[in-house]
Design goal:
This protein has one domain: Rossmann fold. It starts with 5 loop residues before the first strand and ends in a 13-residue tail after the last strand. A 9-stranded mixed beta sheet has the order 6-7-5-4-1-2-3-8-9, with helices on both faces. It is an alpha/beta fold and 227 residues long. The chain is 26% helix and 22% strand.
């Protein structure tokens, strides 16, 4: 990820990833999450975050507004994962999707031998304590990309330690895939001489938080300040 990129984190949680990217890469980060408690945690970190529906939030932005959209361990809990990913491809130049591979061999063995819901470091709760989830595999996700004509720009498949690259058969041996996607370029070309991004036509802020303050009305604008 390039320094000073505009980043949108879908399902940002308590802002750990955004905070790391702001500190390490000096990115301009904005998050969105349904949980008021999690958004409040982002506020306490001094991050810009919006409480609400992520699809509705993205619709407020023009094409390619963000340099990168991140959807990390969120896609399996979405009501409309295809709609969210396609909208993310519209507003972002690149989209990175990370999820837990349900076809990981330890998950397969656990269900086969125990005949019960998988319980491990990732799936820590019993079935009656779990949120609704639509588990997926690497093969499922890549098939989705093929059907929707989404170009996969980069694959990162990690073993069970979540650090070591998986050398073979990722759908079986990779525990955590991260896939970077690129959509098609917008049909309308920019006029000559318009090499810089257009100025945001909205005021910044919503029932969002930026720099520890709560704002109202419209979604926050993560535009870097103009010099």
């Amino acid at each position: 990820m390039e320094p000073q990129s505009r980043v949108l984190d879908l399902g940002c949680g308590r802002g750990e990833l955004m905070d790391y990217l702001v500190q390490a890469k000096q990115v301009y980060a904005t998050g969105v999450d349904l949980s008021f408690e999690r958004i409040s945690a982002c506020v306490r970190r001094g991050l810009s975050a919006y409480q609400g529906d992520m699809t509705a939030f993205m619709r407020a932005f023009p094409d390619r507004h963000f340099d990168r959209v991140i959807c990390a361990r969120t896609v399996h809990e979405l009501d409309d994962p295809a709609g969210v990913i396609l909208e993310a491809l519209r507003v972002g130049s690149t989209v990175t999707v990370g999820f837990v591979n349900h076809a990981f061999y330890k998950n397969r063995l656990g269900e086969l031998l125990r005949g019960r819901k998988v319980r491990n470091a990732v799936y820590t709760t019993a079935w009656h304590e779990s949120r609704p989830a639509n588990h997926l595999t690497i093969a499922d996700f890549e098939d989705f990309c093929r059907i929707k004509s989404i170009r996969i720009a980069r694959r990162a498949h990690l073993l069970g330690d979540w650090r070591t690259p998986c050398p073979i058969l990722p759908n079986l041996f990779a525990a955590m895939p991260s896939t970077t996607l690129r959509g098609t370029e917008p049909a309308t070309a920019a006029p000559p001489g318009s090499g810089t991004r257009s100025r945001c036509r909205r005021s910044c802020g919503t029932n969002a938080a930026g720099g520890g303050r709560t704002r109202a009305r419209t979604p926050p604008c993560p535009h870097p300040p103009r010099s």
